[in-house]
Amino acid sequence: MELRGGGEKVFPVQLMTVRRSKNGIVRSVFLSEENTDYSISVIDVFSRCIGKSRLEIEKELKIVELKSQNPKILRGLATLMFRLSNMERPSLLDPSGVRNSIFTKAKAPAVTEEERERILGEVAEEMHTSVQDVRMAMYADNEDNEILRELPSIQPEKLSNLYNIEQIETVILKSLWMEIHTSSNMGRFIRKARSLGLLYSESDQDGIHSIRVSGPVSILEQSERYGSRLSLLVRYMIKFSDWELDASVKLKSGDGKEEFRYHLDHSVSEYTGLQDQNEEKLPAFVVSNPPPFQSGKRTIYPDYAISLDSAKINIILTTPRYFSEDHGEISSIRKNGTEVELLCIIGRTEKCPKGALCFKDSVDWYSLRDQLERRYRKETEKIPEEIEQNKDKIPSGMEMEKVTKHLKDLYPDSEAMTDYLEFMGLPVAQTLEKAGYKIRWKGLRILVVEN
């Protein structure tokens, strides 16, 4: 069975387990290989309770908790197991529909057992099912009545690792800010923070690079969504060596809240199982972690670089929200003589900003290389007269297949499709027609529709 959950939610703050020192520092309490007995106990309870309700499982867990030195740890592990297991309603019938039908037929409260059975029998007949199924369906939407149908295939060590990860995330979600220090992973971490839409700033001092990221507690709107993205950055970061993290977290203390310092470093991978980060597979002409370059007084960390015959081009990724700001910075970088391209990654429902080179969800590196080669060849080579005369020729063969694929990725964003064709130096109407689209005018605006 495939594991579900893991990062979709975090522990309730009541299950956060930390040790606080007198000097204002908190540290997470982790499960190690030596104390996997907690995980073994919880997995054993769930294994014995297949087919039982959540309420029955909770009663079994209470018995184990009474014998435990730290019931909070057991409760956290059980929370994970509930999330990872396949819990189903005891009936396929719609509970609210069943209740409405019962109340409609019971014009007055059913006092006797015979009267209750008669009403349930009428409802069962109406719904072509049994009285027992109607009974189970009446409160099937109550979480306590969910039935454990299937367990995840998980070892105690893995469950302990998941527990430790969630302990980290629960603390981080209470952070005002966190600062990451690294000497070799700056580009990777900035790329991840940028792709997640996090608010950050970077600095460089004596060869130690730092990224300061705003925490959910300092965000006024959509802090829960922001916090889930911050958790993804932390999970990504843990997989690498050479980093330290310091955060300012706001936790309950006495009758109010108090700020504490929270510290982690790459040694935490021992407790999370998040090791040996595999870099994404990229074409040979793409550099995944290119060196930074200077632009005025700023150090710029490109996301990628592409090697062409005529140039090495730095690539910076952005999103529609930050395109305008980043576009101005890119223009300044180019004036300083550095070859750099800004790519905008858009979601399925987002529009490509005007003037942006957009890709949906992820970069099509081969399409990008073809586009850049075409542009840089025009800029660096003298174009023969016969090619100049045919520069608006509609592409064919493999080139047309690539153009059609990219247009399909951008559809139905008409503006992005026409901007792309103009960027490629292709006749818009003719190329769209050959790719299976046609143009309609809506006032002064072009609409691209499928044939």
Structure report:
- The protein is built from 16 helices and 18 strands.
- 28% of the residues are buried.
- Strand 6 (200-205) and strand 7 form a beta hairpin.
- It has 451 residues and is α+β, with helices and mostly antiparallel strands.
- The strands form five sheets. A seven-stranded mixed β-sheet has the order 1-2-9-8-5-7-6. The chain has a five-stranded mixed β-sheet with strand order 10-13-14-15-16. A two-stranded antiparallel ribbon has the order 3-4.
- The protein has five domains: 13-89 and 144-160, no CATH class; 95-140; 173-272, Alpha-Beta Plaits (2-Layer Sandwich), CATH 3.30.70; 280-381, Trna Endonuclease, Chain: A, domain 1, CATH 3.40.1350; 385-451, no CATH class.
- Mean pLDDT is 83; it is low at 1-8 and 380-391.
- Helix content is 41%, strand content 22%.
Radius of gyration from the alpha-carbon trace, in angstroms: 29 Å
- Biggest β-sheet description: 7 strands, mixed
Provide the residue-averaged pLDDT.
83
CATH architecture name of the largest domain: 3-Layer(aba) Sandwich
Helical residues, percent: 40-55%
- Inertia-based shape: flat
Q: Please state the structural category.
A: alpha+beta
Q: What is the class of the largest domain in the CATH system?
A: Alpha Beta
Number of domains: 5
Unreliable stretches (pLDDT < 50, length at least 5) are 1-8, 380-391
First and last CA, distance = 44 Å
**Roughly what fraction of the amino acids lie in strands?**
15-25%
Within the CATH hierarchy, at the fold level, what is the topology of the largest domain?
Answer: Trna Endonuclease, Chain: A, domain 1
Physical arrangement of strands within the biggest beta sheet: 1-2-9-8-5-7-6
The helix count comes to 16
Number of strands: 18
